[in-house]
Amino acid sequence: MQFIIKPMEERDLYTEKDEVVPANIYCPKCRETLEYPIKWRRRTKKAAIPGGANEQDRARFAKARSYRIRLDDKLRCKNPRCGKTIEISTLQTVVFD
Ligand SMILES: [Zn+2]
Asked: What range defines the domain where residue 40 resides?
Protein backbone atom coordinates (compact mmCIF):
# COMPACT_ATOMS: atom_id res chain seq x y z
CA MET A 1 0.00 0.00 0.00
CA GLN A 2 1.27 3.40 -0.96
CA PHE A 3 1.15 6.32 1.40
CA ILE A 4 -0.41 9.32 -0.31
CA ILE A 5 0.11 12.77 1.12
CA LYS A 6 -3.11 14.63 0.72
CA PRO A 7 -2.73 18.38 0.22
CA MET A 8 -4.05 20.45 3.09
CA GLU A 9 -7.40 22.08 2.55
CA GLU A 10 -8.68 25.42 3.78
CA ARG A 11 -10.44 23.74 6.65
CA ASP A 12 -7.15 22.23 7.83
CA LEU A 13 -5.65 25.70 8.16
CA TYR A 14 -8.65 27.57 9.50
CA THR A 15 -11.38 27.25 12.08
CA GLU A 16 -14.65 28.03 10.39
CA LYS A 17 -17.51 29.82 12.08
CA ASP A 18 -20.58 31.60 10.74
CA GLU A 19 -21.51 34.89 12.27
CA VAL A 20 -23.88 37.77 11.79
CA VAL A 21 -22.59 41.34 11.71
CA PRO A 22 -24.99 44.28 11.54
CA ALA A 23 -24.36 46.75 8.75
CA ASN A 24 -26.05 49.89 7.49
CA ILE A 25 -27.31 49.31 3.97
CA TYR A 26 -28.74 51.93 1.69
CA CYS A 27 -31.76 51.08 -0.39
CA PRO A 28 -31.61 52.88 -3.75
CA LYS A 29 -35.37 52.37 -4.26
CA CYS A 30 -36.70 54.14 -1.18
CA ARG A 31 -33.45 55.93 -0.27
CA GLU A 32 -33.47 54.75 3.31
CA THR A 33 -30.40 53.51 5.14
CA LEU A 34 -31.33 50.83 7.65
CA GLU A 35 -29.42 48.30 9.68
CA TYR A 36 -29.44 44.72 8.49
CA PRO A 37 -27.93 41.54 9.89
CA ILE A 38 -25.36 40.32 7.37
CA LYS A 39 -24.14 36.72 7.40
CA TRP A 40 -20.42 36.10 7.19
CA ARG A 41 -18.26 32.99 7.33
CA ARG A 42 -15.25 33.68 9.47
CA ARG A 43 -12.10 31.64 8.90
CA THR A 44 -9.71 32.05 11.77
CA LYS A 45 -6.20 30.77 11.19
CA LYS A 46 -5.37 27.92 13.52
CA ALA A 47 -2.77 28.51 16.21
CA ALA A 48 -0.60 25.70 14.85
CA ILE A 49 -0.42 23.78 11.61
CA PRO A 50 -1.88 20.27 11.88
CA GLY A 51 0.48 17.31 11.85
CA GLY A 52 1.36 15.75 8.53
CA ALA A 53 1.90 19.07 6.81
CA ASN A 54 4.52 19.13 4.07
CA GLU A 55 6.86 21.94 3.04
CA GLN A 56 4.29 23.50 0.74
CA ASP A 57 1.58 23.43 3.40
CA ARG A 58 3.92 25.10 5.86
CA ALA A 59 4.63 27.91 3.42
CA ARG A 60 0.93 28.31 2.78
CA PHE A 61 0.17 28.33 6.49
CA ALA A 62 2.85 30.94 7.15
CA LYS A 63 1.26 33.26 4.60
CA ALA A 64 -2.33 32.53 5.62
CA ARG A 65 -4.35 35.25 7.31
CA SER A 66 -7.68 35.13 9.04
CA TYR A 67 -10.51 36.45 6.94
CA ARG A 68 -14.23 36.43 6.49
CA ILE A 69 -16.40 35.95 3.44
CA ARG A 70 -19.76 37.59 3.02
CA LEU A 71 -22.49 34.99 2.49
CA ASP A 72 -25.40 37.36 1.87
CA ASP A 73 -25.44 39.21 -1.40
CA LYS A 74 -29.08 40.21 -1.51
CA LEU A 75 -31.55 41.26 1.10
CA ARG A 76 -35.07 42.54 1.32
CA CYS A 77 -35.61 46.17 2.25
CA LYS A 78 -37.01 46.52 5.76
CA ASN A 79 -39.04 49.57 4.90
CA PRO A 80 -42.64 48.24 4.85
CA ARG A 81 -43.54 50.66 2.08
CA CYS A 82 -40.73 49.35 -0.09
CA GLY A 83 -39.75 45.69 0.43
CA LYS A 84 -37.57 45.67 -2.68
CA THR A 85 -34.58 43.41 -3.09
CA ILE A 86 -31.31 45.22 -2.45
CA GLU A 87 -28.08 43.96 -3.97
CA ILE A 88 -25.31 44.45 -1.46
CA SER A 89 -22.60 46.25 -3.37
CA THR A 90 -21.30 48.59 -0.70
CA LEU A 91 -19.66 45.83 1.36
CA GLN A 92 -16.63 43.86 0.32
CA THR A 93 -17.06 40.14 -0.22
CA VAL A 94 -13.82 39.19 1.53
CA VAL A 95 -12.46 41.05 4.53
CA PHE A 96 -9.12 40.52 6.21
CA ASP A 97 -9.26 41.66 9.78
ZN1 LIG B 1 -36.26 50.21 0.20
From this structure: 10-96
